[in-house]
Amino acid sequence: EVQLLESGGGLVQPGGSLRLSCAASGFTFNSYAMSWVRQAPGKGLQWVSGISAGGSGSYYADSVRGRFSIFRDNSKNTLYLQMNSLRAEDSAIYFCVEGGGWSGSAVKYHFDYWGQGTLVTVSS
Amino acid sequence: QTVVTQEPSFSVSPGGTVTLTCGLSSGSVSTSYYPSWYQQTPGQAPRTLIYNTNTRSSGVPDRFSGSILGNKAALTITGAQADDESDYYCVLYMGSAIWVFGGGTKLTVL
Question: How far A51 CA lies from chain B's nearest CA (Å)?
Answer without folding.
Answer: 9
